[in-house]
Amino acid sequence: MQRKAATVIFIVVKFNVKPDWSDRWLDLVADFTESTRKEPGNLWFDWSRSVDNPNEFVLVEAFQDDAAEAHVNSEHFKKAMADMPQALAETPHIISRQIEGSGWDRMGELTIAS
User: Fold this and answer.
1) 10-residue stretch averages of pLDDT, the chain, 114 residues long
2) Which of 10, 28, 68, 97 could make an S-S bridge to 63, C-beta 3.0–4.6 Å?
3) Which domain holds residue 13?
C-alpha cells in the first residue's frame, strides 16, 4: 500500500488598510491571530508589513489539510471577518493552494554552515 504524501493548505493574503488604521491593524487582529495559532492543525499564522507600502499587511498561514475548514467555520474567524472591513481600503488579495509537505523546507540555494 502506498502512503499518501502529507499536504498543507498554504495561504498568503495581502490586506491594504486605510492609513488611519495602519498603526492599529495588528491590535485589531490580535485576538484572531492568537486564537488561530492555538487551533489544532494550524502550522503558522504570521503577519508582516510591506517595506514598500506601510498600509499593506501580508498574512502567511498554513494548515494541515483537514484543519482549514474548521478554521473558516470558527467563531474567531467569523468575528474577524466582521471586524476587519472597517479598517480595509479594498478587498484583500489571496493565494490559497494545497501543496505537498508538512512545513518549511531549507533553502537549497543558500545554505549557511552551522
Assistant:
1) 76 98 98 97 96 98 86 94 98 96 90 89
2) 68
3) 7-100
C-alpha grid cell for residue 103?
A: 512545513
Identify whether 2 is part of a domain.
no
- Is residue 48 assigned to a domain? yes
User: What pTM did the predictor assign?
Assistant: 0.90
Domains: count for the chain: 1
42-49 vs 56-64, strand pairing mode: antiparallel
CATH number (domain holding residue 62):
3.30.70.100
Dihedral class, residue 39 (left if φ above 0, else alpha if ψ from -120 to 50, else beta)? beta
Cell numbers of 65, please?
A: 489539510
Sheet holding 93-100, edge to edge: 42-49, 56-64, 7-16, 93-100
DSSP codes, 23-61? TTHHHHTHHHHHHHHTSTTEEEEEEEE-SS-TTEEEEEE
